[in-house]
Amino acid sequence: MLQRFRKAGTVLGALIIVALAGTANAFDGQPTTSRSIGPEDLSPSEALRAGARQYYSGDKTAAISSLQYAAENGQPMAAWKLGEMYAHGDGVPEDDYKAFKYYSQIVREHGDDRPDAPDAPFVSSAFVALGSYYLNGIDGAVPKNEARARQIFTHAASYFGDADAQYHLGRMYQDKNSRMAVRWYNLAALKGHVGAQARLGETLYSLGTSEKKKARGLMWMTVARQQATGADSGWIHDMHEQYFAVSPEPVRQIARSLADGWIEQNRPDMLTAQQVQTQ
After folding, report:
1. Low-confidence ranges of the chain (pLDDT < 70)
2. What is the model's pLDDT at position 269?
3. What is the DSSP string of the chain?
């Protein structure tokens, strides 16, 4: 399967489902007072549902109160959403350290939850976010710690099978241990992680000692280019152009054939879209 809809889509979809679930009359998405939520008002799961509804109805101030109560009482989905809001300044002032603390809470309390548990996508996403903070540091709050970042990514990549974590590990190993980089990139690429497909292709091409092996690398870059959108599209297109320009024609031909076969088998929706556009 392709990367679990991509993880961001999975967790956001789960939040939308929560928002549409059963309602509590006292928290119906309308603006609320700043009074703290307590057990006499809602259970933690009801507070999570209320917070999700309030968020998607545009009342993010009320959502914060509901989500905080849910997060403080064992709801990892609520803590994840608060982490995302603070990380991106979504309805609150951007604050990486507050985001870091929410992600840390999830990892501390739920890091050993089953990988097939309902909240697993949120837990693995928190691992990746936390690993990124350790990798880059937070000025004045969290020093860079590459060893800790690798440890966190490795747990998410191995235990949860998280494609983003596998990609980050590939990046960490790429200039130090190409074989390890290929291992992690390959796992993520097979899940449909476009960035990992491009980096896998780049690494395989550089390691390739024959036209067939270089074609395998160019194939993955071609697959990534055909799927790349948004922020990924620029660097992936540039990478593909760079390696395509220096490849002999036999390598190009093999790569095109392999890429077409991969797309046909794994992304038939792309072929359907192309046929509609040409009709």
Report:
1. 1-41, 271-279
2. 86
3. --GGG-HHHHHHHHHHHHHHS--BTTBSSS---SPPP-TTT--HHHHHHHHHHHHHTT-HHHHHHHHHHHHHTT-HHHHHHHHHHHHHTSSS---HHHHHHHHHHHHHHHTTS-TTSTTHHHHHHHHHHHHHHHHH-BTTTB---HHHHHHHHHHHHHHS--HHHHHHHHHHHTTT-HHHHHHHHHHHHHTT-HHHHHHHHHHHHHH--SHHHHHHHHHHHHHHHHH--THHHHHHHHHHHHHHHHS-HHHHHHHHHHHHHHHHHH-HHHHHHHHHHH-
